[in-house]
Structures are given as C-alpha cells and as structure tokens.
C-alpha cells in the first residue's frame, strides 16, 4: 500500500483526497500557490510545498514543480484529482519516469481518450454507438462551415481537447457559425493549448447520462451504474443525481455494458467515466443513447455514486494504484437509494452568473448534508481558479426524499458577502419538470428568468429586520441572522433599503434589544439579503444605470467590438472579457453612442474598472 501521497491539486478535491488518505493511514503532502498559502487543503495535509505564483500556469499546471515537490517531500505517489494535469498524458508519463506511482490510468489510455475525435473513432471501431458528426483533421473555417451545413443545424462545435463546457458552442444558423467557431477556438486555445474542434449533430432533447467505470491491473473492469448530469448551464453541470430518473433495468444493463466495453477497448485502469448523450424525446432508450467522450479521471460528481453504492472511490483509486485487485466484483455492486449533488458557486445569477470574488465573512452549511468543500468562514474566493465554493450532497431512500433533503440543505446554506447560486439551485429543485424527472440539458435555459429572479422578501422577514434595526438601546454595530421572536409593543414604521437598491416601508412591533445594528443579514430559500435603514428621503441605488460599463471582475480583454463615437443598440456586444477561465461579453445597456472607450485587446483590467460609457441619444 502507498505510504505517502502528494495531491497535485487544490480546493475541495484536495481536501476530499486527504480525508480518505488519512483514514487509510497514508501521509499526505499538499502543494500550493501564492494565492493558496492559507488554504484549507494546505492546513489539512501532513506537509505542504509551495510551487509558484497564483496563476495556475505558473503553479498547478507546471508538472516539473509538482514532481520536484513530491521528491523533496518524500512522497512516493501523486494523485492529480480532477482538472489541471489530471488528464495530461505527458505529465502522467513524467511521474512514472521519475520513479513515482501515478494514481490514474496509463498514459496510453489518457492519450487514446484525450482527444474527442480520436476517442469517437476508437469507440466506433469497438462497437460503441457514437453521435453523427465530423471529426477530421481539416480545420479550415470554410470547410468546417460546409460540413456543419451537411450535418444540419443546429450543430455543436466542441474543442477536441475540451472539457467542463469550455471550447464548446451550439450554433443554430449558418450565419452564426464563423463567429461561434472563432470564439470556440480562442477559448480552446486559452484553456487547453489546442484550437482543433469537431462538429456533431446537436440533439434537440438531450440528456447527459454517464457511467462510472473502474479497472485494475489484474484485468478486471466493473461499472458502478449511471449518473444523470442533464441539468447544465452553458454546458457546465449544476445538479447531478444517481441513478438516472426514468432508467429501466434493460436500458441500464445495455448502457453499462457499453461503458465497460469502452473501458476495455483502452485497457483501462483506475477511475473513469464514460459520458453518453441520450435523445430523450421518447424517454430513455438504449438505441437512442450515444457515446460522447471519456473522462480519464475522477469526476466532480463522484460523491453521488459513492452515496448509492457505499464505495469510497478515492480508496479504490489508491488500492488499485498500489497494485491491489478491485475490492468488489460486478455482482457485489448494488444501487441503494438515491443521491443528488448541487454545485454551490461563487457567482451572481442576477448579473448573468458573473463570478463573485472576495472574503467569505459569513459561511455556514447544514449538518444534514455531506459537504465537500475547500473553503471555510474567513477564507477567500480567488479570481485565479474555478469559483466553486462547495458540493452539497444529499441522499434518500427515494428520489423524492433526496430532493427534499437537498432543498432543505440549500435553505440552510448561508454565504456573505460573496454572491452565490444557492437560490438558483433551490428554485431549480422546485421546478415541476425536475420533480417529475422530466429533465434535459435545455431545461435551465428555458426557465432561466424564473430561476434567477429573487423572490420578494416575506413580510415577517421585513418586520423582524425593521425591529432589529430600530432597536434603541445599546451600542456598536452587529450582523444578525433572523429567527428570533418579536415581543409585543407599540407599532412603528421604518424605511428599509436592501443590497439590490429596493426600498421597503415596513410596519412592525417595537422590541427591546441589547444592541442596535448597522445592518442585518437575512437568509431565506438560498437567497441572501443585507438591509440597512434608508435615509428619510428614500435615496438609494439608482434604478437606471448611467451607461458606465465596468469590469465585473479582474480579467483580460480579448476583443473590442466597437470604437469611440460608434452608435450602438441595446444588447449589442461591446467587448469580451476573459476571467476565471471563461469568456464574458459586456453589452450596451441601452441605445446610444460610445461616448468613452478605455479598453483595448490584451489589456489586463481590475474589478470595476471603467471600460466604456454609453451615452443615450436625444431623439428630439
């Protein structure tokens, strides 16, 4: 058995691996960048090695530094987690060549499945059904446009080296193909260093079904059943569950058999996931499910498989890497209950899901859920890495029980002042279609207006806030959560201002309190609000913007589409900002002209930097 393990990753997955390794008596070594010097995974490991500057390309993506850290710390094995170098065959080979144990599949397996086009060809040869499309080497834009027309719109452009929704674009019309291709290739180059793409038919009623597979060095390969990851936004998974709703035993058997066949085609060792796309227009049918890709690593959503099988997948990884056979045979694996995972992100759904960074001054999770996280109260959400705060994982004997448990857990999640998608997640669980299991990858896009709209605060919440803010005794500002009982007293009225700029006039029962408060935090249904007493004249945040286009976060400008003095229309793209590994388009808030332009391609900008100003045109 491995005695000492270096985790070549950060955040929640590093903490997750450390937890299992500790239980197995394995010494752990963390690596960290400048930004992560005080991170949770650094403190939880037995030892930690600094590997460079905050940017991942100078630290977590530098294989030589990670191997050197392993040797310097006395680690005998490296676990890559997911993301970063986890599917980099050259890094895996370098680890092996350095005399270290690689906790993952053989480099040849990573290479075989690493490029989507080559993987699809391999699967087709192995008898695994694949989606129709173009996977060739010709990357001429005109040629690709012609092939897209032959396949028939809508089509999906996908980076062959992609993952996590990066380098992927749906195109509905030939007129949009060239721009989508260019954007996809830019993002693919920035994220993976490879601009090559493939084109495949876009399935109109798609569901994303994946199968967990596991192999050992003794020739054994098993599956641990399926997961449904259809709830996605911009091709990134939001809520995952296991098993898949609506999956009958016959279809499950054929699907899982195809996944095992795919894994055997590359002599797979370790944890892997075979991803399929299903046309759900007629329910889940084995003849309408096609191979998409294989992820040659542990998946973010692996906890739901663990919850329904009772298997610790990280433990299996470490045992297999140590040369042991799989702990269980296929006939010993069973589905027990239902599990769901929601990804809690530091992002603001009300502003187009722009990432939110900063200090986690208040952070609380419910005890009833399994929480996989790499941050804690007082920590920071950095602009350098993925903005996920935690994975909220619930289990129940039935799907309804799992939904109820996850919904209650979201209600009990409190984060401030960083914005999160908790309320969005709660509303998603409330959708009738989700409750019925009638899901597909387009559900969020169809319901997004409802999902991102914060509900109006309840009158009881407002009354409690007003009473606390207006308490007259004591001194010193405090921040309080709600839930106390109001004492009977004279009626009073107050004007409250919330953090969105909304004013509320509230009548309430006066109370006595030990200390007044300058502001109050209220958490309900996953939404967070901060209230203050409004000025008597009711001034607050302007409801109408002044046309200033501010950078929503630190990042790099990769394209400027307008010039100073140019006339623009509401919604027209002004420029594109690259931040937190994604592209974000900034658009005109109303019809007008570009009165000021302070942006140029390639420039680095800070949060709230004035990039442009749009001035309305007087029609008179």
Structural class: alpha+beta
**Share of β-strand residues:** 25-35%
Counted up, domains total 6
Query: How far is the N terminus from the C terminus?
Result: 80 Å
The largest pleated sheet is described as:
8 strands, antiparallel
What is the H level of CATH, i.e. the homologous superfamily of the largest domain? ATP-grasp fold, B domain
CATH topology of the largest domain: D-amino Acid Aminotransferase, Chain A, domain 1
CATH architecture of the largest domain: 2-Layer Sandwich
Helix content, binned percent: 25-40%
Mean pLDDT: 89
C-alpha Rg (nearest Å): 26 Å
The level-1 CATH class of the largest domain: Alpha Beta
Question: Could you explain how this protein is built, in words?
Answer:
- This protein is α+β, with helices and mostly antiparallel strands and 620 residues long.
- The protein has 6 domains: 4-103, Rossmann fold (3-Layer(aba) Sandwich); 127-131 and 208-336, ATP-grasp fold, B domain (D-amino Acid Aminotransferase, Chain A, domain 1, 2-Layer Sandwich), CATH 3.30.470.20; 133-201, ATP-grasp fold, A domain (Dna Ligase, domain 1, 2-Layer Sandwich), CATH 3.30.1490; 337-453, D-amino Acid Aminotransferase, Chain A, domain 1; 459-533, no CATH class; 548-615, OB fold (Dihydrolipoamide Acetyltransferase, E2P) (Beta Barrel), CATH 2.40.50.100.
- It is 26% helix and 31% strand.
- It is built from 16 helices and 35 strands.
- The strands form 9 sheets. An 8-stranded antiparallel sheet has the order 14-13-10-11-12-15-22-20, sandwiched between helices.
- α4 (89-97) runs antiparallel to α5, α12 packs antiparallel against α13 (422-430) and α13 (422-430) packs across α15 (443-452).
- Residues 472-489 and 536-545 have low confidence and may be disordered.
